[in-house]
Specification:
The complex is a heterodimer of chains A (162) and B (786). Chain A is α+β, with helices and mostly antiparallel strands and 162 residues long. Chain A is built from 5 helices and 5 strands. In chain A, strands 2-1-5-3-4 form a 5-stranded mixed sheet, with helices on both faces. The chains are: A alpha+beta (162), B alpha+beta (786). At the A-B interface, helix 2, helix 3, helix 4 and helix 5 of A face helix 2 and helix 18 of B. Bound molecules: FE2/S2 (inorganic) cluster (FES) (2 copies). Chain B: It comes from Kitasatospora cineracea.
């Protein structure tokens, strides 16, 4: 089948898609967006998290056909037009929250969604929101630091009262 | 003269500020930006026009004879390009890290659940999977050999590898063993010297590395009949060395380039899909990509050895250890992998960082029909640490002593002898690490009035509002060797080039080091900056075009490849300065490269590097070998077997819901001596990551194997810690330089994985009063509902 949707604001089209293919597979292998990662392909690790119509989902659990005509935003779409890092991306780099980095794309999307909903989450809120994203390298401490840093920067940019 | 000296000092001050990205600083990862943009190419992201997808047929049985394999139906599936069995292997059929006992594809029998039997290449991964299902294999299913008793009685239960097979096994199902005796050993007379004796039996489940990036890579057939492989691995050269004979190619026709690695932790030390992808590519003449699904990943790599251990410790009334008697049995599974070295570690480190006058130790790895076990972070020291630290707590209780004081009283220090007879000839601040970890402030006590239920055991499931929750605190310390031991000439190679690009001096570092996430690429740039006084450093992609870097394991890469980068950079600096001396007749012997300039401590700035270098590049290649070690004596375990020791101490605070058996680690503190922190940010990240894997082993992680069959090959059923399971991990680092190591550094990555598990179990014991002799600790162990 043919699937057309919008990825990071651009229309994309994939041909000869087999019905069983996931959105993750289509993104990675057919439309040249390998940023979302394939760690379990079972909805358990969160590495493949993307926005689908603005809601974070595990793209490995979304059948390709389901995205027909919809809007997908991946980690590749988090940077600015000029390739400048987004606020959450920069915070992950600065805090040392990236080691092997395989978990990073999913965590970035999930963190972006968290801060959009609540720019000043408590530590427990952060842990709850990211509990579906496994990281095997960092021990999560630096990820906590990164999210706190991104939150602080976001609040100062957007003038949220502390 | 005076004026010039002052000028020189001023320059140096400015320069010191500018070179904050040298060693000791925390510059950001050079690959970090790519990684957060999703542009970093991991091995599973490799793509080639026209590529095929490979996959393997895997055995559903842990032990069976293969009577026949019929691939004809699979070949008929449209889109299938090749179906291969061992008969299609052009060269050697067996390979292995230490013992070549593993067939690249099963021959006449399978020895573990998940062993690869045949390969398929097709135009879509799903086509390949469907074709695999059409391969017909006739098995004669045999009873698997899975327990220690069965393994040690081959007359009754059989051999995993028959003695007449490709290599004879003098030991039956024993893959490797190592004994050790020190002092008087352990005899009745020695036992009589102790006032208090405690003993225990301990068990460690099978842990998995569970790196997130699946085994994957792309093999591209080359015009010269060779193959190029883009691969996530820990050691490019040793992969190639094992692959080439199987592919029947000379080494130089098997070229490996490191593709992005999504974590490793020992699980990529053995080959997984390397040979398979290359066989398919050479057979079809097309690029072939293989990406394991998560279940295949659980079948496709070796795990941490499960262990059964018996310990007996004796001490005088005032707490001085008199003897330790230890037996450690590791289940190595179907193939040897790194089992011999794991046994060597367990035997030589298995009594912990303590002075014990009399020791008897016997460590064994068995061959069985369980999944193969090999390298995992901590490598033989992890299992033993659970044993000896549990014993120390037991002893403290029997003596009525504080467990930390008992450990401090017996802690090794510089100048002491290990039971192997090896002197500890570098700082060994075990007592101090324990003191510091004890002195760190404790988290506030549980406050039932103002608590967020999400922080309790059971967390989001809302299983408790504070009732039935008990807090416990536990301590531990551990010891790990750094680098490869027992006489292995473990070396690394680096090439460093200095040239002028865009009017600036730029250093290029080329090594074959596998960057698996640990941050070696950051540190290599820091070393080059420090040694060459430049800001710009580029890291060449790791491949087999430069000499071996050895493995990214055993906490050795910063020590070994970092050491090689230092040597090569020093050689470049030497050549550059010689050129200057020649050309300008400099007399001073106090020259260095700082801030892009040649600087004399006495005479100030002499010349910018750019002017001295001009259009010629200087390139030097160096190997770094660590000091020699020797194999342990087979019977006594004596010998200078290890390059360096590293130590970490932990304190765990846990809350336990004693009614439901749920555990929440509230805080896990670590204090570690790292010799010299080349990059403090990375060092802390490594320690926190190591502690978290240790937490996993303590309370949740286990590959459940029943009658040789793996029951939980998925992230649904094999649980690794999430951010909710992981507490704050405060870290303190000590920097006591090791005089034998580059910059005085000490390997970092493994020590916390060795030490942290026992502290968590100790804390749970304190909270519950349960004996807890097996890890992972499960709810049923805490509620007596087994
Ligand atoms: S790959 Fe989708 S959740 Fe793991
Ligand atoms: S950084 Fe490796 S999995 Fe998170």
């Amino acid at each position: 089948m043919r699937v057309t949707f919008s990825a990071n604001g651009k229309p994309v089209e994939a041909d000869d898609v087999w019905e069983g293919e996931s959105l993750l597979y289509v993104l990675r292998e057919r439309v040249g967006l390998p940023g979302s990662k394939n760690a379990c392909e079972q909805g358990e690790c969160g590495s493949c998290t993307v926005y689908l119509d603005g809601v974070p989902v595990c793209s490995c659990l979304v059948a390709a056909g389901q995205v027909q005509g919809r809007e997908v935003r991946t980690v590749e779409g988090l940077a600015g037009q000029d390739g400048e890092l987004g606020l959450v991306q920069q915070a992950f780099v600065d805090a040392g929250a990236v080691q092997c980095g395989f978990c990073t794309p999913g965590l970035l999307v999930q963190t972006d969604a968290l801060l959009a909903a609540d720019p000043q989450p408590s530590d427990t809120d952060i842990r709850e929101a990211l509990s579906g994203n496994l990281c095997r390298c960092t021990g999560y401490e630096k990820i906590m630091d990164a999210v706190r840093l991104a939150s602080a920067r976001k609040c100062s940019v957007e003038g949220v009262a502390k | 003269m005076t004026a010039r000296t002052i000028q020189g000092q001023k320059n140096l001050q400015k320069i010191n500020q500018a070179s904050k990205d040298g060693i000791g600083g925390s510059p950001l990862r050079p690959d970090g930006t790519l990684k957060v943009k999703g542009e970093f190419a991991y091995s599973s992201d490799m793509w080639h026009e026209d590529m095929l997808w490979g996959t393997a047929l895997r055995s559903p049985h842990p032990r069976a004879n293969i009577l026949s394999v019929d691939v004809s139906e699979a070949l008929k599936v449209p889109g299938v390009y090749a179906v291969l069995t061992h008969e299609d292997i052009p060269g050697e059929k067996y390979y292995g890290l230490e013992i070549a006992d593993q067939p690249a594809l099963a021959i006449d029998k399978v020895r573990y659940h998940g062993e690869a039997i045949a390969l398929v290449a097709a135009d879509h991964p799903e086509t390949a999977r469907r074709a695999v299902k059409k391969i017909k294999v006739e098995y004669e299913v045999l009873t698997p050999i899975t327990t220690e008793e069965q393994c040690l009685d081959p007359e009754t239960h059989g051999y995993v590898h028959e003695p007449h097979e490709y290599r004879s096994h003098a030991y039956g199902n024993i893959c490797h063993e190592q004994k050790l005796v020190s002092g008087l050993g352990v005899t009745d007379e020695v036992r009589a010297l102790a006032d208090v004796v405690v003993s225990g039996e301990y068990e460690v489940g099978m842990q998995d590395q569970a790196f997130l990036g699946p085994e994957s890579g792309l093999a591209v057939p080359a015009e010269d009949g060779g193959v190029d492989l883009y691969i996530a691995t820990q050691w490019l050269h040793v992969d190639r060395q094992q692959m080439a004979p199987v592919l029947d190619l000379p080494l130089e026709k098997v070229r490996l380039t490191l593709a992005g690695v999504g974590g490793a932790f020992g699980g990529r030390e053995d080959l997984s899909m390397q040979i398979h992808a290359c066989l398919l590519a050479l057979h079809t003449g097309k690029p072939v990509k293989i990406v394991y699904a998560r279940d295949e990943s659980f079948f496709g790599h070796v795990h941490r050895h499960p262990a059964k251990m018996r310990y007996e410790h004796g001490a005088t009334r005032d707490g001085k250890l008199v003897f330790a008697d230890c037996r450690i049995v590791l289940d190595g599974g179907a193939y040897a992998s790194a089992s011999p070295a794991v046994v060597g570690n367990a035997a030589s480190l298995g009594h912990g960082p303590y002075v014990i006058p009399n020791v008897r130790m016997h460590a064994i790895a068995l061959y069985s029909n369980n999944p193969s076990c090999g390298a995992m972070r901590g490598f033989g020291a992890v299992q033993a640490a659970f044993g000896y630290e549990s014993q120390l707590d037991k002893l403290a209780e029997a003596l009525g002593m504080d467990p930390v004081e008992l450990r401090q009283l017996n802690a090794v220090t510089q100048g002491d002898l290990m039971p192997t007879g090896q002197p500890i000839d570098a700082p060994a601040p075990v007592a101090e690490l324990l003191q510091r970890v004890k002195d760190m402030p404790l988290p506030p006590p549980l406050d039932l009035e103002h608590l967020d239920v999400r922080t309790l055991p059971g967390a989001l499931s809302n299983t408790s509002h504070g009732e039935g929750i008990v807090r416990g605190v536990g301590y531990s310390v551990g010891i790990k060797n750094v680098g490869f031991s027992e006489g292995f000439d473990d070396y690394s190679t680096a090439r460093v080039r200095l040239e002028v690009i865009g009017g600036e001096p730029v250093a290029m570092v080329h090594t074959a080091m596998a960057e698996v996430g640990q941050g070696g690429v950051t540190v290599h740039a820091q070393i080059a900056r420090t040694e060459l006084g430049v800001e710009q450093v580029t890291i060449h992609p790791a491949n087999t075009e430069v000499g071996s870097a050895g493995s990214t394991s055993a906490s050795r890469q910063t020590y070994m490849t970092g050491g090689a980068v230092k040597l090569a950079a020093e050689a470049v600096r030497h050549e550059l300065l010689e050129r200057g001396r020649h050309r300008y007749g400099w007399r001073q012997d106090d020259l260095s490269l700082v801030g892009g300039k040649v600087v004399s401590a006495s005479a100030g700035v002499l010349i910018p590097i750019v002017d001295l270098l001009g259009d010629d590049a200087i390139e030097q290649t160096r190997e770094h070998h660590h000091r020699p070690t020797v194999p342990f004596d087979k019977e006594t375990g004596q010998g200078f077997g290890h390059v360096q020791y590293t130590f970490c101490a932990n304190r765990a605070v846990v809350d336990v819901d004693v009614e439901l058996g749920l555990v929440k680690v509230v805080e896990l503190t670590a204090v570690q001596d790292v010799g010299k922190a080349l990059n403090p940010l990375s060092v802390v990240g490594q320690i926190q990551g190591g502690c978290t894997q240790a937490l996993g082993l303590a309370v949740m992680e286990e590959i459940v194997v029943k009658d040789g069959k793996v029951r939980n090959a998925s992230f649904t059923d094999y649980l690794i810690p999430t951010i909710l399971d992981t507490p704050p991990i405060p870290v303190q680092i000590l920097e006591l330089p090791d005089p034998h190591a580059p910059y005085g550094l000490r390997g970092v990555g493994e020590a916390p994985t060795v030490s942290a598990t026992p502290s968590i179990v100790a804390a749970i014991r304190q909270a519950t009063g349960k004996a807890l002799n097996r890890i992972p600790v499960r709810p049923e162990h805490l509620t007596d509902t087994l």
